[in-house]
Predict the structure.
Amino acid sequence: MGRLPNHVDDVRKATDEEWNRFFKETPYATFFHSPAWSRVWSIYRDDMEPSPRLVRFDEGTEALLPLTIAKRWGGTVRAHISSPAGTYGGWLAPSSLDASQREAIEQVIVGLGEVKWRVNPFAPSPSQSLLEKAQDDFTQALHLSSPFDKILDGWSKSRRYNARKAEREGVKVSTAESRSEWEEYFEAYEDSLERWGEDASSRYHWPLFEALRAEEEGVELWVSRFDGRVVSGALCLYAGNHVAYWHGATLREYFDVNPVDILFREAIRDACDRGLEWFDFNPSGGHEGVVKFKKRFGPERLPAPMIKQDSLTSHAISLARDLLP
């Protein structure tokens, strides 16, 4: 970038060790801020690469930007993504930044050119001037400050009944241990994609799940089994006091045994047992039916707007393509 903002002494590329240290020491970091999340996407897509930045302020305080570069238009444009797949981004800092430091690091982010940044609802909020340019969105998250039984009381009656019914039907819940369980889950996802059709927000391929399975920490695939078969799953990502439900799928022919509600019941029970603070259902991609489904588990609604800034190069290329016959 060009001239550094006031209060910033240096901006340089961070090492993997620095990224991991800031990730581990920042209290509001989620798995989406981790080196692992960026690494998974760089394995899955050859147009992405991790590119963290270390920001040093003039009084010696440091913060880290967990960035991933996405190459567009044949590499002509290099977009800086605060976190892949539209997940939470923003800076990492073990200690709180003051107002002048937050303003300065926002200027660093804006100065990168093309930027995509979903605001982390569990972190200090960006300035109002940035939020005014953001696209409104939200997540739904359960605050796990109460005992599990009290949290369960906050569910709708139908969710609690369905979980008990699934238990009576013989549905068993556990975390996936083998590659074959992940493959069965992927089959359920392909079945779900066929059911969702054009309404699907995204379409992922097996190598992404294979890369996630290879991660040693922070990734758990919860699965419901019926008659020995994986019929439903929830991919959950753990970091600090937070767990995010990022991806889920269910085989349509097993809806009648209610494998989803019991799956969430046991995943949330486990989060309580671990002493976590948040079970985050994640933003719903604008799907009102998904929002209503999650609401029946009694979560809070937290703002998670998306900040997008196009570069002049990207804008010019898009305009030129629109003008082509």
User: Anything to note?
Assistant: Residues 140-303 form a domain with the Aminopeptidase fold (CATH 3.40.630.30). The CA atoms of residues 47 and 323 lie 26 Å apart.
